[in-house]
Amino acid sequence: MDWAGVLITMLGALCVLLMLGLPVAFAFVAVNIGGAFFILGGENGLIQMTRNAASSLTSFQLAPIPLFILMGEILFHSGIAYRAIDAIERVITRLPGRMALVSVAGGTVFSALSGSTIANTAMLGSTLLPDMLKRGYHPSMAMGPIMASGAIAMLIPPSALAVLLGSLAGMSIAQLLVAGILPALILAALFSAYIITRALMDPGLAPPDDPQRMSLAERWRPFIRYVMPLSGIFLVVIGGLLAGLATPTESAALGCIAAVIAAALYRALTWAGVKKALMETVQISVMILFIIVASQTFSQILSFSGATSGLIRTIDGLALDPTTILIAIILILLFLGCFIDQVSMMMVTIPIFVPLAEAVGIDLLVLGVVYLLTMEIGLLTPPFGLLLFVMKGVVPDEIGMGQIYRAVTPFVIIKLAVLALIVLAPQIGTVLPEAMR
Amino acid sequence: MASLERLYLRILGLMAGIAAAIFAGIAIAIPVNVLLRNAFSTGIPGVLDGVEYGLLDATFLAAPWVLARDAHVSVDIFIAAFGRLRPKIDRMVNLLGAVLALIFLYYSLEATLISAARGSMVRQTLVFPEWWALAVMPFSMAFITIEFLRRAIRRSDHEQLIGL
Question: Which of A247, A180, A236, A252 is nearest to A432 (CA)?
């Protein structure tokens, strides 16, 4: 079978198995078993496949994945994150669309403390949404900002998927983690600008509220008490990386310890909370890491069969410029994001797109930021956008999926605009990591 | 039968608990290592190896528990459209999962036995027989096979949103 046949067979089989609902990790194992037998060499290929599974996981680079998740889970289960959201709400006053702005600010702050978009969205949804609906916010103005800013956790470090992307694609994990900061801040600023503009144009969407009258001290004390110290955790994680003092794994582990110390100082550390945080960490981390079990063999099969080089030669033969190829990569990732999860997206495309980008001269760091942003958009695009379902889980029953899709659309358009901006001005993604070099 | 199932679930829970302890151990060992390195120019010997093989063990030990909680990510939007056929397809998919896990079990056991027979060693900071590291795979796959068969017999109704 020629390389095109191998590629079509592998991806086709993978699609069918995924559509049948086989867990993603086992769909990859199934394709690997076939590929290892026919391409890597019969039974020896299958033995090699299992050895690859072990070597895929024995990588120090992957350690930040459970650690970043654990850090967020500790802050989540100790209740510190909820207190921080409440404190942020007190200091944002007299602005049009105030509560929607609180959700953007809260989502951005918690993104800097957690690597999980689901935890972020669920927390914002459960704390802010009922209050926003009660105050007469239009459901679109209430849900859209929560989903959009919940997804920012993909870009702002600590991001577990950025670690995975860096590890699978052979990119510098430290640089990739830092590269997401500026695009994320641009996103948060644009979300805020959109909310204020919409609230001014149509005050019915976000009725001006009259927050409880408080003195300056009452307003700012909780912020100083619950939000400022949390920035210390962010500094521990990112400061070490930026200064080149710590590896991503060391930063992540120090972040965990800082989260435990913070929870203890707030007297919010309980054995039950730690146990829950650890078990949630096991569930989410193992779900990701078990898919990685198949990563090495999957890319080996694509490489040995000549599929990777054949595809790159074909695209090279089209004599397209790097920007066109980058746009094509983005379109494919956006399409995949509508149907499959983020880890599968990376597993399927990285063995092809990374060598392709290297061959045509696309900066890998720019490709990394593009990956993170497209995966973030994939969390919000129907029909499989995971955060849409997280939102459905926390809204009242009368709000249907159609309304959730409509609520998120303006924010997806903003994200697409920032994606286009990165293609036009890649420095947005590279300026901070280059400062580290 | 019910007590056997309780015992089985308890074993899965214990394996997940060991995985949690490994992650907690990694979270503690690395900062201690950083502290020792910076304060006393020394470190915990083999911490890097410990973290790497800890990830392998934690992942394989907890994978059956994650499957039992229906928490391995899957794409279920298409299968939802099958309506009344869904239970049959679910059963078929779970049987396929059991076959895949059994194949993986067989060849990972082969890899482990070959490594033990050859006396292959992992020679990093820590030195130990390689089969110690490989053995976790067939052990885990045995439980995953059982879990897939269990799901094929009695489809779990545990639905939750999985991902990052």
Answer: A180
Q: Residue B129: helix, strand or coil by DSSP? A: strand
* Cβ contact, residue pair A342, B163, below 8 Å: yes
Closest CA to A94 of A211, A197, A260, A256: A211
Using the beta-carbon criterion (under 8 Å), do A22 and B93 form an inter-chain contact?
A: yes
ipTM above 0.95, yes or no: no
pTM to 2 decimal places? 0.88
- The amino acid occupying position A138 is H
CB neighbours of A233 closer than 8 A, spacing ≥ 6?
Answer: A71, A75, A113, A255, A258, A259, A262
Measured between beta carbons, the chain A residues lying within 8 angstroms of B133 are: 54, 58
Examine the pLDDT at A263 and tell me if it is beyond 90: yes
Q: Flag whether residue A393 sits within 8 Å of chain B, measured between CB atoms.
A: yes
Q: Flag whether residue A109 sits within 8 Å of chain B, measured between CB atoms.
A: no
Which residue(s) pair with B123 in the sheet?
Answer: B127
Give the distance from residue B64's alpha carbon to the nearest chain A alpha carbon, in angstroms: 10
* DSSP characters over A287-351: HHHHHHTTHHHHHHHHHHTTHHHHHHHHHHHTT--HHHHHHHHHHHHHHHHTTS-HHHHHHHHHH
Burial string for A343-357 (b: 16+ CB within 10 Å, else e) reads bbbbbbbbbbbbbbb
Q: Does A253 touch chain B (CB under 8 A)?
A: yes
Q: What is the mean pLDDT of residues A265-288?
A: 92
Q: Are A22 and A30 in contact (CB under 8 A)?
A: yes
Question: A310 φ, ψ to 5°?
Answer: -60, -45
Over the stretch A366-412, which tens digit does the pLDDT of each residue have? 999 999 999 999 999 987 788 888 888 888 888 888 899 999 999 99
- Eight-class DSSP state of A243: T
CB of A401 within 8 Å of any CB in chain B?
Answer: no
- A240's enclosing H/E stretch is helix A240-242
Largest CA distance in chain B: 66
| Minimal Cβ distance to B90: which of A21, A59, A118 | A21
Subunit contact B79:A386, Cβ cutoff 8 A: no
| Chain A hits for B34, Cβ within 8 Å | 246, 250, 253-254
Q: Which residues pair with B127 in a beta bridge?
A: B123
**Dihedral sign from CA coordinates of A123, B78, B75, A417:** negative
Interface test with chain B among A44, A55, A57, A281, by most B beta carbons within 10 Å: A57
What pLDDT digit, counting tens, does each position of A303-345 carry?
888 888 888 888 888 888 999 999 999 999 999 888 788 888 8
Residue A20 in contact with partner chain B when CB distance is under 8 A: yes
Q: Which of A20, A249, A275 sits opposite B89 (nearest CB)?
A: A20
pLDDT band at B159 (very low <50, low <70, confident <90, very high): low
Going by their DSSP bridges, the two strands B127-129 and B121-123 should be labelled as: antiparallel
Q: Considering only CA atoms, which of A354, A297, A304 is closest in space to residue A56?
A: A297
